[in-house]
Design brief:
Blueprint: H1 8-28, H2 33-40, H3 44-51, H4 59-68, H5 73-80
Helix pairs in contact: 2-3
Length: about 90
Amino acid sequence: MGGSVVDHETRSQRYDRAIRRLREARKAAGLTQTELAKLLGVRQQFVSKFEGGERHLDMIEFLDVAAALGIHDQHILEICISSVLPPTT
């Protein structure tokens, strides 16, 4: 099979931006990490670790966090593609 369309560094930067947007949304909602954790049914350390980059969220976890923060539909897509693939030449 062919190589990846996006290099690892670009994926990491996009992931970091998405997590930063979730953290900003949590703060904008006036929620602490502990309060978000309670909404998710997880421990506060879960939130701390994904916000701090120690743990990556899988797709379902990302959607659960977004839903707990009241982020739905089109806005989730905007977060995910806020750093779209570079244009092809």
